[in-house]
Design goal:
about 210 residues; alpha+beta; Arc Repressor Mutant, subunit A
């Protein structure tokens, strides 16, 4: 039995998958669920991005994207489609990476999840195609810090925990406020609307757990 599980964040550069290309073309942050790989090699994709940023248009113009549907949610859009292009996350998953969330910004990607043991972590790094760059931004034992405990106890996503922690550290919740939403969003490398959505969803989940 392997006793060590690591919470890991990878930074990926050079991936030319549709979401990476669309985020680069629109210069916008796109959050995505782990893509569902079909037996035919195509992937079912669900992602969201800022409305009217041009992400939907970039995806629609990509001839590797099929059956694109865009749901308007006000400040955010949700994209569902079939991608005929391979994504580096599939290579990392095949090597043992348990992906939880993906974020694309201006062509660069952040993959967050877990690996079981340091040998698997090295195998994941070795599995990436030479066409892309994969570096470890953060790796810590599961349960070694507050992030995993908070996420598990309150049912927050890793992206929501990251947003709330960054906001707290910068003084976003202080009175008077020491940092604006735009300040914290810049620190995280995401759009202001994406930051506010994560914080508001986290607040709703926390308040629901406290007052019910």
């Amino acid at each position: 039995m392997i006793e060590e599980c690591l919470v890991v964040e990878f930074r990926v550069t050079g991936d030319d998958c549709p979401l990476a290309r669309a985020s680069a073309a629109a210069d916008a942050a796109v959050d995505a669920d782990p893509p569902q790989l079909r037996t035919d090699g195509n992937a079912l994709v669900r992602a969201s991005g800022p409305a009217e940023a041009g992400v939907a248009e970039a995806l629609d113009a990509d001839d590797r994207v099929r059956y694109l549907h865009v749901a308007d949610g006000g400040d955010r859009e949700t994209y569902r489609c079939l991608s005929k292009a391979p994504c580096v996350v599939h290579e990392l998953t095949d090597a043992g990476f348990l992906v939880e969330s993906l974020c694309y910004r201006a062509g660069e990607e952040r993959h967050r999840g877990a690996v079981v043991g340091r040998d698997v972590l090295q195998g994941v790094l070795d599995a990436a195609d030479e066409r892309v760059g994969v570096t470890v931004e953060r790796a810590s034992p599961l349960g070694s810090d507050g992030e995993v405990g908070v996420a598990t106890h309150w049912n927050l996503t890793p992206a929501q925990v990251e947003a709330v922690e960054a906001a707290f550290e910068r003084g976003y919740f202080s009175v008077p406020r020491e940092a604006t939403a735009a300040d914290v969003a810049d620190d995280l490398g995401i759009s202001k609307s994406a930051f506010l959505e994560r914080v508001h969803r986290a607040e709703a989940t926390l308040f629901d757990g406290i007052f019910r």
